Amino acid sequence: MQRGLLIIAVLGLFAGTASAGPAPTLRLVKSEPLKLAGRGFAARDLVRLTITSDGVTVRRSVRATPRGAFSASFPAVSYDRCHDRLTATARGRGGSVALKLPSALCPPPLSP
After folding, report:
1. CA-based nearest residue to 73, from 101, 36, 31
2. I need a surface site. Which of 2, 40, 71, 90 has the fewest CB within 10 A?
3. CA dihedral sign, ordered 82, 84, 85, 90
4. Looking at domain 23-101, which of 3.40.50.300, 2.60.40.1940, 2.30.30.60, 1.10.3720.10 is its CATH number?
5. What is the 8-class DSSP label of residue 83?
6. What residues pair up with 92 in beta bridges, in sequence order?
7. Number of CB atoms found within 10 A of residue 12's CB
8. Pairing relation of β-strands 95-101 and 86-92?
9. Structural domain boundaries in the chain
10. How many angstroms separate the Cα of 80 from the Cα of each of 32, 101, 109?
11. DSSP assigned state of 8
12. Distance (Å, whole) CA 52 – CA 59
């Protein structure tokens, strides 16, 4: 009896993890003009993006592919890793994810 309950419990755990897809991810593809890519969202999900860089905030919606991926370009936004901070969020039915890139500590330019 206990063995049967243990098998049912283990199968229930596997069924729960099998139905859950991968967690959404968001990554920087290109810094000028800004291009982001995401994956792990629901198929054909309407993903709402909010980008803040150098004090400028841009909002846009994109449609995920049947596999839950998307890419989006922002021609009016650029990201300079030495001077800007970038915050990007993506929200959809498949979940939400945030990408935060702080400004790097770049050395000053060399003078001749």
Report:
1. 36
2. 2
3. negative
4. 2.60.40.1940
5. T
6. 95
7. 10
8. antiparallel
9. 23-101
10. 8, 10, 15
11. H
12. 9
What tokens appear for 44 in the block?
Answer: 């054909």
* pLDDT digits (tens), the chain, 112 positions: 555 444 554 445 444 444 567 899 999 999 999 999 999 999 999 999 999 987 889 999 999 999 999 999 999 888 888 888 999 999 999 899 999 998 888 888 787 7
* Residue 93, token pair as written in the block: 């039915």
Asked whether 40 and 68 are in contact (CB, 8 A), the reply is yes
Q: Is 13 left (phi over 0), alpha (psi -120 to 50) or beta?
A: alpha
